[in-house]
Write a structure and sequence with these properties.
Layout (H helix, E strand, L loop, with lengths): L3 H8 L9 E3 L3 H11 L3 E3 L2 H7 L4 E4 L3 H13 L3 E4 L7 H11 L5 E3 L6 H7 L6 E3 L1 E4 L1 H7 L15 E4 L7 H13 L6 E3 L8 H19 L2
Parallel strand pairs: 1-2, 3-4, 4-5, 6-9
Antiparallel strand pairs: 7-8
Helix pairs in contact: 4-5, 8-9
């Protein structure tokens, strides 16, 4: 687990979770995160970390090709895992992984829940919601498909990119999104996650806050 966003989020709820170890093949990077967030133990090997630490759960924020392997390692030890999206490199691989670890651990996946039917289906299982938008480039998708592996720092050549709220889906979509959450009883935080390479974080968050204020006012009426 090495994502700065994830570590920041966990560190904000010390009464509910404590980060006791971090693993990264790049030990220098792991040491840096360890110093920044006060994480006591650093590992280069995920297997070693899982064998030596008494863990309740792990947060997998690794390249997608490693997700299944790391989840399997956790399942072998009965350790729950929260995995960054996408869960695997393909839908078929994800289905196989879920079947393989079933009844051995609780496997959860980060998701933006941008499709409202999923909100209806999940209902009171929704615990936390990220507000994050995506723009899909139809030209690039038409050539390469939607599965994207190029770095986010090269948005021009990607099939899709994270954008500021409202720049991928309009205000009407966000009103419906918030209304769907309210319909199933969610009345908690909408956590803005800004990864728009074309806009400064401050400007992006301000625009996102303005949009959500409008959307959530309508959802409460």
């Amino acid at each position: 687990m090495k994502s700065h966003h994830h570590l920041t989020a966990w560190s904000r709820i010390p009464e509910r979770a404590r980060i006791v170890a971090i693993c990264d093949p790049d030990t220098a990077r792991a040491e840096g995160r360890s110093a920044e967030f006060g994480i006591p133990h650093v590992y280069e090997s995920a297997k070693a970390m899982l064998d030596l630490e008494a863990l309740d759960a792990i947060d997998i924020a690794a390249p997608r090709d490693a997700h299944a392997t790391l989840a399997d390692l956790a399942a072998e030890r009965g350790i729950d895992a929260l995995c960054q999206k996408p869960l695997a490199s393909s839908f078929g691989e994800a289905e196989t992984l879920v079947r393989r670890v079933d009844n051995r651990m609780r496997l959860m996946a980060h998701e933006n829940w941008q499709f409202r039917p999923a909100i209806r289906a999940l209902g009171d299982a929704i615990y936390h919601v990220h507000a994050k938008d995506t723009h899909v480039d139809p030209t690039v998708c038409g050539i390469n498909g939607r599965l994207e592996t190029k770095p986010g720092a090269a948005p021009r050549n990607r099939a899709w990119n994270y954008v500021t709220l409202g720049y991928g889906h309009g205000e009407t979509w966000w009103r419906q999104f918030c209304a769907a959450l309210k319909m199933v009883g969610y009345n908690d935080v909408l956590s803005i996650e800004h990864e728009d390479m074309a806009m400064s974080p401050l400007e992006g968050v301000r625009k996102s806050v303005r949009l959500l204020r409008e959307a959530t006012v309508d959802a409460k009426q």
